[in-house]
Amino acid sequence: MPMKIENGPFWKRVEENLQNDFMREAVAGMQDRGYVRRLGVIEELGHWEEWRSLAEQIRKHTLENLDYYLMQLSENVAKRGGHVFFAQTAEEANDYIRRVALEKQAKKIVKSKSMVTEEINLNPVLEAIGCQVVETDLGEYILQIDDHDPPSHIVGPALHKNKEQIRDVFQRKLGYTKSSDPVELARHAREMLRRDYLTADIGITGCNFAIAESGSITLVTNEGNADLVTALPKTQITVMGMERIVPTFEEMEVLVSMLTRSAVGQKLTSYITVLTGPRDEGDADGPEEFHLVIVDNGRSSILGTEFQPILQCIRCAACVNVCPVYRHIGGHSYGSIYSGPIGAVLSPLLGGYDDYKELPYASSLCAACTEACPVKIPLHELLIKHRQIIVEREGKAPVAEKLAMKAFRLGTASSPLYRFGTKFAPSAFAPFVEDGRITKGPGPLKAWTESREFPAPSKERFRDWFRDRQKGGNPL
Amino acid sequence: MTRGTIQNRDAFLQTIAQRLGRNPRLSDVSRPQWGYQPQWTVFDGYSQDDLLKVLQKQCELIHTDYIETTSAELAGALRRQVAAYGGGPVIVPDDPRFAEYGLSALLRDEWPAEQTTVHIWNPALGRQNIDAAEQANVGIAFSDITLAESGTVVLFSRNEQGRAIHFLPKTYIAIVPKSTVVPRMTQAAAVIHEQIEKGELVPSCINFITGPSNSADIEMNLVVGVHGPMKAAYIVVTDR
User: Fold this and answer.
1) CATH 1.10.3210.10: does it fit domain B45-237?
2) Mutate to test the interface with A, among B144, B218, B231 (most CBs of A within 10 A)
3) Structural domains of chain A, with CATH
4) Which residues have a Cβ under 8 Å from the Cβ of B47 and sit 6 or more positions away?
5) Which residues does the record give as [4Fe-4S] cluster 1 binding sites (chain A) (predicted)?
6) A224, A311, A318, B229: which could join A262 in a potential S-S bond, CB 3.0 to 4.6 Å?
7) What is the pLDDT of residues B55-69, one digit of tens each?
């Protein structure tokens, strides 16, 4: 699965997804329940703003000294007998992993959930040399056996599927004969995957946090799949985005505490595993060989720019889970494995504006994402920066936004023109207004107004109203 | 230990430094004093008894059976819990604490006499240990550090304690000496960090285990027991 998951125009994808009632209900339910759970654990913890400030400081310091910490990490991995490969591009990473697989004559490879291996599109590379690649995270497994259905959420990839659809896939592909009860479905996956863990030649994982001081990698799961992926096969390959690193165990601990609370509302997930090098001499399990692949793939181009804070991300999806736009259009509309506000900022940076110019507009700029972010990434401000670049430098803004952005741009430059822009807006939207509500909006508003009406720009601007009010005019 | 290889590092780090607009920084960076330390305030001043109450309450949330006992009663409590999980086969690490806590007779004589197979992890047996773990109904291990806040047992791998003990058996029992209980992950991380500062090697695998395995990947319904154990119990030994 490459980073780009769907073709076709953005608004067409949005329209299709708005018809998907199950998906929309599932997303709404996830957001509502997740919101309550997340706030519950945050409140129980206390001092949340201090935690956020600490996490932000850690991430900023690490990024500012990234070369130092990657140096330290790689030295410590090598000291423990592990091999480190620095890959500037997806191709370099894939080539290296392919060479390891060929050298090991690997037939079966088990994987635990990893966004970066999706991003570099690793699986087809391994399948092309005859390896069977098995995803072991339950959500990823479901998507893989359903002819590689793309993920729709960075933490819960199969969120868009209901249990009947999953049962049908299991029946069709795995000879499953039982019900759509999630427990029975999960037990079946357990049986199937047990054999795979025990017979795999290579285990591949992502990396939540590498620890520079010890050359360790930290894996966070609830299922325990990453533990079996790393305990049983003879060779372990871990692929990490180059920014997924902390100085010491102490910072790892802080960020894991933030990650599990923000992602799933848990104090810790069932399994947090810290692995250092291959198995120790005399151990009877764990990998005999360990490879760490550190991937740039466009990340260094973000360093030193106004978008650098996006590299603070710990992939918790708290921003996704509070986003009102994601709630309506779902993950597939974004056309990237990275969806929601984080995806809307990151996808254009890693994949370019040609493919992702609409994403920065898939936001109401309500700032719920920024407020939810445990490492204080100013997500909505970065979305505005994207819009500015798209309009000013690239000239690629979707037509409807061009108008609005023009007003915004002029507005920042000149106050008479700002007044013109806001005066002009009501007449621009006039054809779509009924009783003061926009019911059939153009462009981005069209999707939004399928589900709700959008308040029309007032004919009377706040400024005019305030002036009138001071003169004793109409109250609103 | 043979040193591993490092490839393409120089150019990679050079690019990062360039983007950051400075020369490569490859040594002499120290961690700043962080401006906030909220992690140390959690359960600050709690006694060991207070922490046990926190642990017990958390066990309800993580679907984990919580049993308190004394070292004199431990063998009986363990025997009952294994029976409640359906009996053997049992797999355990080769850990001197089993003898210290009076469990040798149970492991070496009583259970085998009752046809409850006990496999004691033995690195010399290699792959046979994994087969035994796969067939085991119950895995049992001692918690090295226990985190009250999250209900987590911390386990350091060693030759005599393989990783598979905690993951392949159908059910899992952790023996928790009361003295191992600390407020949260902060204390465990600090201990490990200190060891590294002193030049000690961290074990190749450190597990932070919080209850049985679970997943909410199907319609966000919680399914307890996916790839790892389907049930878990903590037996807290209150006088150790």
Assistant:
1) no
2) B218
3) 45-295 (3.40.50.10420), 409-476 (no CATH)
4) none
5) 313, 316, 319, 373
6) A318
7) 999 999 999 999 999
